[in-house]
Structure formats: C-alpha cells, structure tokens
C-alpha cells in the first residue's frame, strides 16, 4: 500500500503546540509517510516545544533574524521551501493557523501545485489590521487551501460565507489534544522563576501580552492596569512570561520590574505554561491560543484586544473582551478578584473548541480525501 506523504510546515511556538499532537497521530497511523519542516520563525520558543514532544524535524529553514520583518519571513520561507517541495513532492502540505510562516508555506505549496491542508481554518475578526498580520494571513491561506480543518461549526460557517464549500471538516482544535498530553496532577514547574509557586497559597493571575498591534501605548496601558492590580491586591501573585520581542521586553520590564508580587519571567515551555494556566485563578491575555486553552481548564479569561476571532468562549461566558484601555482591563479583572458570584459565573470548564480527538478527525479526513476511508463525524459542542 502506498503511503500518503504529508509534510507539516510550522515555525512558531503556538503552531508547534497545536501541530505536535497531529504529527504524533499521523506518525502512529501506518497510512502516512510524515515529514516535518520547521521554518524557525521563532527559534528558541519553537525548539522548546519540539523537545517536549520529542519531534525531530526533517528540514529546518532556520530563518529567524534579529528584528526580522514580515517581508523577510515571507521571502525566506518561500525561498527555503521551494527546493524542499521540488525534491520531496509530498502529496499534501499541512499548515496551521495564521502566522506568516503559514501563509508563505501555503503559497509555496500552491506554486508547486501541491494541495494544502489548513489546520485551524475559518477563524475571522473581519478587521484586516487586528490581529495584524494574522487576519490577512488566515484569509489568504483559506483561498489557497484544498482541505479546511475548522475547529468549530462557526468557523465552518465563516468559510461557507466566503464560498469555500469543498472539503471543509469540523474537527475541533488540536490544542485540546495537546492539553490532554501536558497537564498533569502534582506537576512540578521546570522554570526556576516558578519554583515559588509550588507551595503558593495566593491566587495567581497569569498575564501574557505581545501582539504587534498592542506594541506602544496599548502595551503601556496593559502594564499600567497590571501594576494597579498588583498594588490593590497585594495578596495576589501576578505571573507574566515576557515575550522575547525587544519592544515587548523594554516596555514590560520598565513598568513592572521590582514589584513585589509580580513575577516577570522568560517565555515558558508548553508544559509549564499549560500547568500554570491550570494553577491560575484568572488569565489576562492578548493571545489567541490562551482563549482556547484557559476555558478548557475552567479559567476565566480577560482578553486585552478590541475583538476576537474566537467568539465561542464569549458565548459560553468564560471569556470577556476588555479592549486595550487600562481602566477597562483593571475593572473587569478586579471584579473577578472581588466578586465570588462573578467568578463562579465564568469559571466553569467548557470545551467549545474540542474534545481531544481533533488530530484523529484530521487524519481521518485526509484519508477520506485520498479515497482511503470514511468521512469523519464532525465535532459538535454541546453547551
């Protein structure tokens, strides 16, 4: 039996977290010949994930440069993949989500006339500059792709409205698959910065903020809100893993250093991060992935952005949008820290994004496309 040659291409930490369980699923299925190509759009943070999931890339473009531009990432991925795809000729290229690696890899596969499978397809804000450049990356990738693996029914409906109707599969989000592999009872943190949390009785507030559109004044507003929370709630421990972007580091460390109940630390490995979410009381973030991960673990999320491409958890009332004004961020967070009823209303574990079987459904959908299996049943979220 001829195996289906599938090449997974990814380059950032969030992509790697969500592609890792899919890579493991495909590798364990005898129908597939799996190749892994990383672009290393994020070098250090990507390598952390590869190590934890024991994934060894077959190809590494190693494109990351200091202060790299979007143009550099795009052109480097296109140039690096051109020869690899020409020589390997996979039957299918799988990309994930909305990074510049995602779009450039999909475009490279299109140039090579190789079908593209888009994992986490159909997310939309309908604002091309928020998140930037991710919203346009995901839209363009959708129109290049042949197979569309939508996490939710709403994502599928977004695609249908854009007249993308063929080979759309609702599979759930692979991040829920990843959480099932990483969150463990009695977990011990690996990061030295988190050792004090093992016996910590304080409530933990997890903060992440790094998006391009939040650089400058919005990030200053976020930090001002975090500082006020730290001052007004001295019994709370605030943990902020700081992104390696120099612009993020400069703002965060200048505004939040030397505050007794604020821990500023290096970006965390995926196991530390997922288990830190599990130990947290609330999460403040401008990340997309944490809007999926935290609700699955029953943690209320305050989104520090003006819109979200992940409205399912808002409907389930475990996520609320604060925007980027410091007073809004503070007031929504303070309410959760002071009102038991408000907290209980949001702190119910929901899985609008998956049931831990997304990778299996994607594998089944690929087999179905190549005429080697039945069409998988769609993931259905029952609220």
UniProtKB/TrEMBL annotation:
Source organism superkingdom: Bacteria
UniProt keywords, alphabetically: Isomerase
Residue ranges occupied by any UDP-N-acetylglucosamine 2-epimerase domain in the UniProt entry: 25-366
SUPFAM superfamilies assigned to the protein according to its UniProt record, in alphabetical order: UDP-Glycosyltransferase/glycogen phosphorylase (SSF53756)
GO molecular function, one term: UDP-N-acetylglucosamine 2-epimerase activity
InterPro entries xrefs: UDP_GlcNAc_Epimerase_2_dom (IPR003331), WecB-like (IPR029767)
CDD domains: GTB_UDP-GlcNAc_2-Epimerase
UniProt EC number: 5.1.3.14
Family (UniProt): Belongs to the UDP-N-acetylglucosamine 2-epimerase family.
NCBIfam families on file: wecB
PANTHER family hit by this protein: UDP-N-ACETYLGLUCOSAMINE 2-EPIMERASE (PTHR43174)
Record-given protein name: UDP-N-acetylglucosamine 2-epimerase (non-hydrolyzing)
